[in-house]
Recover the amino acids of this structure.
């Protein structure tokens, strides 16, 4: 079991894995006029938690479970292929792998003894949730804690992007996050339970607009965020 | 109500498709109609209202090597509430063998107020087979908030995962109509095309429809949201959809690569 500080370090947006550069689709949702204020931001975050957040948290928890198991190399490769099948948008696949690479760089530096060599050698890098699972293992986090880090990142990443994109009052955005805390915990708990299933049975919650936003965003020449 | 139906298409030695099995029971009745191009067309004829919560329906489809099968439904299916706490289920399992073609192009699923419905599709596609698979979901009848509906699509290509999607709408799906999922659109759907003879084209997005080349093989997913069923259908017509000729597309030849720049909807 990790120390509480270890959990806080991994959940911290200042962990050097480049999370601050991503809005997780929010920049495109704002540009399309779908997120305009605190109310629509709250709806956006609830939808993200129930879809991308649940999937990412379940895959991160599953990778954490695989980290110390026999046959982990095969399980991680299977998780990678299953996550690809849940990510219809090429832009979203590329972003997940880019974020995975960034997190992997940090993980290797911080925990040289981590089991990162077990990750599949896929072009573009491993998916971010898989790396998060192994980073969590190296830090001594259990699968439920890894799921918590992933669910937490789903809401905090887009929320801090919202402050910049919409000029929202940071206090009110933080109050929104406080109101979403229970939903975030519930998503993490659901993901941790789901992660006990074999890779093909993990959640596959989809959101048509997530694919549409990601592909639209990828074509922009000028943007504030990388996703 | 529990019902099962089974449909098996095989190619004879002249390459013509025949039905080796065509068996259904109400409300899953199957009718063969004259097909085209040596293939066979079958309609699923709803023999009762529904599905109603509590119904458990299952359809197995098998397309043998070289056979060509198209499946349609005669009308939209409307998921309705039934016994309190009960869920209606529709499971479609399809196997498409090498050199075979399956067009699964049913009418829409409408999630009526108070429904509790789960639609599962499990498709096994062999390498070299062709699949067109369309799913359309209408959230509520006219000006109606839908009940809970879940559309699960599970496709393997040559034994490997190609597509896993679960779209959930209704009171139990947080944020489903919000800006992260459907953005208030009452109609949504997707068309999956697996076709090794067809060039996989790069992604493109126009308004609320996107063409997405998948990672797991020669396959493309069109995904869309729309204000109504009619508009949605126009976006998801195989070979006749509006996406391939997106007028908003600007070719940026200065890049030398023909980069596509598309305005966000």
């Amino acid at each position: 079991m990790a120390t509480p500080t270890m959990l806080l370090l991994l959940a911290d947006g200042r962990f050097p894995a480049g999370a601050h550069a991503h809005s997780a689709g929010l920049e495109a949702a704002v540009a399309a006029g779908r997120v305009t204020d605190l109310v629509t931001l709250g709806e956006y975050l609830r939808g993200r938690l129930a879809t991308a957040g649940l999937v990412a948290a379940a895959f991160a928890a599953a990778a954490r479970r695989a980290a110390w198991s026999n046959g982990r190399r095969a399980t991680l490769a299977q998780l990678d292929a299953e996550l690809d099948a849940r990510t219809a948008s090429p832009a979203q696949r590329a972003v997940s792998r880019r974020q995975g690479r960034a997190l992997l760089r940090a993980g290797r530096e911080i925990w040289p003894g981590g089991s990162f060599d077990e990750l599949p050698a896929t072009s573009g890098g491993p998916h971010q949730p898989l790396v998060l699972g192994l980073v969590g293992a190296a830090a001594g986090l259990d699968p439920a804690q890894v799921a918590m880090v992933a669910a937490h990142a789903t809401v905090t990443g887009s929320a801090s992007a919202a402050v910049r994109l919409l000029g929202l009052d940071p206090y009110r955005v933080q109050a929104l996050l406080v109101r979403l805390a229970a939903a975030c915990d519930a998503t993490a708990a659901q993901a941790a339970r789901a992660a006990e299933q074999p890779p093909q049975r993990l959640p596959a919650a989809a959101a048509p607009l997530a694919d549409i936003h990601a592909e639209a965003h990828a074509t922009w020449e000028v943007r504030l965020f990388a996703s | 109500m529990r019902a099962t139906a089974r449909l098996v298409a095989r190619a004879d030695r002249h390459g013509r498709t025949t039905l080796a099995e065509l068996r259904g029971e109400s409300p899953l009745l199957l009718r063969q109609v004259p097909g085209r191009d040596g293939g066979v067309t079958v309609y699923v004829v709803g023999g009762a209202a529904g599905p109603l919560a509590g119904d458990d329906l299952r359809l197995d489809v098998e397309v043998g090597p070289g056979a060509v099968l198209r499946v349609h439904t005669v009308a939209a299916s409307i998921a309705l509430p039934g016994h309190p706490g009960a869920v209606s289920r529709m499971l479609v399992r399809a196997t498409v063998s090498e050199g075979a073609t399956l067009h699964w192009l049913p009418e829409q699923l409408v999630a009526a107020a108070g429904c509790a419905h789960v639609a599962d599709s499990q498709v096994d596609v062999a390498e070299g087979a062709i699949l067109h698979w369309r799913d359309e979901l209408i959230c509520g009848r006219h000006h109606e908030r839908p009940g809970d509906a879940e559309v699960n699509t599970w496709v393997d290509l040559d034994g490997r995962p190609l597509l896993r999607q679960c779209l959930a709408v209704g009171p139990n799906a947080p944020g489903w109509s919000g800006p992260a999922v459907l953005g208030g659109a009452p109609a949504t759907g997707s068309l999956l095309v697996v076709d090794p003879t067809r060039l996989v084209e790069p992604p493109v997005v126009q308004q609320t429809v996107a063409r997405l080349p998948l990672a797991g093989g020669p396959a493309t997913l069109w995904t869309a949201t729309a204000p109504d069923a009619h508009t949605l259908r126009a976006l998801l017509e195989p070979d006749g959809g509006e996406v391939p000729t997106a007028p908003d597309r600007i070719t940026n030849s200065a890049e030398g690569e023909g980069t596509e720049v598309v305005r966000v909807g």
